[in-house]
Specification:
Blueprint: H1 2-11, E1 15-25, H2 31-47, H3 49-56, H4 62-77, E2 80-89
Antiparallel strand pairs: 1-2
Length: 101
């Protein structure tokens, strides 16, 4: 995904581009931080329930069943949410920005 954005980022003239992956542990296995991350993630998914059910044409109860399976899997696999972050800088502005050589 990040590789697909690089032509746009570089084409915009940005410099010193760096890409990072940040993992946030999800679930009670990861202590208080993981518990908060899981609760927040589940609240976000629950807020999208109608769209998820409609888009995937889920039968009654499948959404809730999937959420319960996901909770168990997060514990069993010591799951993490991975965030992709891109940092870049604008190039310095010079007086001769319009000058051509």
């Amino acid at each position: 995904m990040m590789e697909a954005l690089m032509p746009t980022i570089l084409g915009a003239g940005l410099i010193n581009v760096e890409c990072y992956d940040y993992g946030i542990p999800v679930g009670d296995w990861a202590g208080p931080r993981g518990h908060v991350a899981m609760r927040t993630y589940l609240e976000m998914v629950e807020s999208l329930k109608e769209e998820i059910v409609e888009m995937n044409r889920l039968e009654e109860g499948i959404f809730e069943e999937t959420i319960e399976l996901m909770k168990m899997e997060c514990v069993a696999e010591k799951a993490e949410l991975i965030f992709k972050v891109i940092c870049a800088q604008k190039p310095p502005i010079t007086d001769d920005i319009w000058r051509t050589r």
